[in-house]
Amino acid sequence: MSAVGNLLRLCGADEFCSAVEQLALLVASLAHDVGHSGLNNDYYVKKKHALAIRYNDQAVLESMHSSLAFELILKEKNNFLVDWDEEAFAEFRKTAIAAILATDMKVHFDLTTQMQDLRSTPEVDTSCPDTKILVHKCLVHAADISNPVLPTSMYEAWAQRVATEFYRQSQREKSEGLPTAPFMDSSPRRPGRVCCPSAGFHELRGGAVVERHGGYVAAAGAPKKAASCQRRVL
């Protein structure tokens, strides 16, 4: 959540995103993993789990997270949207759902390509709904995998947690006769193994996507902040 807040401010997206959109992005970042069981989409699909069947094998967890988030928000004791008009509620809901669905790693390269194309556009219309939705998606996606740009001690602690989660899933898959991804099937307790088995991914994609997406957003919507954004994202 703090990463999204920083990206909004440092990249200049707060200059063209409405207050409702900014709140939706902060809530999306807070709720994007609500109800997560420590298993990934691939597991649910291979298992033919009820969630995978319900969501047609597409963004299984992200669809569940966004649905559960609004179930919780709309409970009477939680509903801070109760007095909003229909237009504001629709804007909030659309923005939050799109941002949460964009945390599915299957859309990573597509988002990056779209942002590169946007940056190469001579004049970007930041009032265009499609442009704003793309920016929303990229901000939350970049924040979601921003662990590599945290201080080393924090990065290593979270990488260890991810490695443990991956390993536990691989062991569960083996016990259930399911195929296992090689990068997940390595004990995080192995000597010298401080970072997660996907460290290469996180270093090359995680850190890079924060820098690139942040820079692209700034260059597209607030050029004066482009350089500083790439230096001071988190």
Automatic annotation (TrEMBL):
This is PDEase domain-containing protein. It comes from Perkinsus olseni. Keywords: Hydrolase, Metal-binding. InterPro entries: HD/PDEase_dom, PDEase, PDEase_catalytic_dom, PDEase_catalytic_dom_sf, PDEase_CS. Zn(2+) 2 binds at residue 33. Gene3D superfamilies: 3'5'-cyclic nucleotide phosphodiesterase, catalytic domain. One of its GO terms (biological process) is signal transduction. GO terms for molecular function: 3',5'-cyclic-nucleotide phosphodiesterase activity; metal ion binding. Zn(2+) 1 binds at residues 32-33, 144. The keyword Ubl conjugation does not apply. PROSITE patterns: PDEASE_I_1 (PS00126), PDEASE_I_2 (PS51845). It comes from the Eukaryota.
